[in-house]
Please model this.
Amino acid sequence: MHGCHVILPLLNKEIPIVCDDHADMEKGTGVVKITPAHDPNDFEVGQRNNLPIVRCFTYDGHMTGKEDVEKYNELVKKGNLAENEPEVLDCGKYAGLTTEEASKVILEDLKAIGALKEVEDLTHDVGTCYRCHTTIEPMVSKQWFVKMDPLAKPAIKCVRDGKTKFIPDRFDKIYYHWMENIKDWCISRQLWWGHQIPAWYCDECGEVIVAKDEPHTCPKCGSEKLTRDEDTLDTWFSSALWPFSTLGWPDETPELDYFFPTSTLVTGYDIIFFWVARMIFSSVEHMKSQPFDTVFIHGIVRDENGVKMSKSLGNGIDPLEVIEKNGADALRFFLATGNAPGNDMRYSDKKVEACGNFANKLWNAMNIDDFEVKNELPAELTIEDKWIVSTLNTVAKEINVNLEKFELGVAVQKLYDFIWDCFCDWYIELSKSRLQSEGETAANARQILLWTLDKILKLLHPFMPYITEEIWQTLPVEGETIMLQEYPKYDEALNFPEAVSSMEKIMEAIRAIRNRRNEMNVPPSKKAKVYIATKFKDVFDSGAKFICRLASASEVETGESFDIEGAVNVVTADAKIYIPMDELVDKKAELERLNKELQAIEKRLAQSEGKLNNQGFVAKAPAAVVEKVKGQAAKEREQIAMIKTAIEALN
Model:
């Protein structure tokens, strides 16, 4: 049938039959009617088969008629038509109707002449306006294009040669896919705002004039009747020039010489082609250089359910409201904490609130003393001083490495753990007894606290700029602003591995004692002597004061071994710790209390499991209620296990 023709019903227009791979043989009859002027795929089929391009509706969405055909013919006579300008169809009785109105009338007319075989509903991907949601009718039109092949090849080579690299490197595949399959770029847009295209048309002869400065006469016929193209440039065309146009280009400015090419671009994976690729080929073309050395790709912040935020869904988060509630630093810290290169993350109110609590923790750490001391390390360092200094030194080293690799989330997590755990929960508590003393001992402790806090604020400043600047300004430190301070780096002279190892042994013992006392519901106010059997006697002797202060020990005795009847045993990697039971609890009364509590919780668990084993309840109750009962049962099992552990310890 190739080369044959058919008659288009209603208009009785003869149209050709062509064979093309675009037709899907598995769908319907394997035959499809095409409109090259009104569908991108049909346009490609038309180009491959030299079909005429016929436009059947106007730019404002109405079916074309005799008047439109007459205007077209007049342009043909004047020779003012661009190459491949679409023909215009006289739609007869349908002229002037909107496309939607015409569709309904045409359907009825097809029924009337018996040309309609069947009507069925199909799921179809129809383009709609994101604002008003009306159907978008595609139509071929005269536009400006950039020929891409000469631009794409050098841009591909720029990345392949390593002049510009992607982090994570998997995203260069997306870049190559776009650039190696690129088509000529339509750069004209029918918008109200933007850079207007520098093109003028002669009203007399149709000559097209492209110029930097506005022309006053037609270079072909001399006419002064010139009309400027109303189209604007594609937003991305202007954005593609950003790396050098912002620095004074095309003039050779000092800024352009100093800042171009830039070092790192930070952007999302959704605009690798729209922006990143276009900046690269524009820079290579105009500047003969890559625009940046590194492209750091981050993910998208989605809502709590993992759905992309959008105006239409109404699931967006107003950052100003979040900042008003939790502070800018809390939001910024949350975004950095959950950041993994190239991966999406979910927004969470609770996590932002937790970051706000972290800021409060940091603020409270500032208020531990008046800091009337020099910001330098004292000549003599205690074991706990060496531990905090050396640990901070190691953290600074690791954070610098992480930042160099753009592992922001990893760097922030290490810093968070150090500040919250090492500095606030441990070192401040370890140093309180020294701070309460007088003379050089107290002064040394203040110096260490100030020195450590200063380094912490500098490490944290890129992630929480406001609170770190505010706190730093209150400290007795030199400098106008923390922003101009050197970022902390690793210093081999501040590495004290033996002190770190010793303090970790002591801290592990304190944690173990605290956990066991907590399991046995022993209040901190109730103190007991602690016996420590260990081969590291000197280490635990030096840490005895910390065990007394932080593990509620009345006294600490160390030795190679102990045999204490009725004592609770606590084992760590470096010691076996004994705590006499009689000094902690009334064994009989505590066992009686624990057994009574165990019976009550076992009864509640039996009720929960009874509901869950009842098929009627599981089938009829709302899913949320069933899940709630499951959660209660799990919690009750955990409580029972903890109580049994405590009873076993007492026995």
Q: What stands out?
A: The chain has a mean pLDDT of 90. The longest strand covers residues 262-268. The first helix runs from residue 40 to 48. The two ends are 95 Å apart (CA to CA).
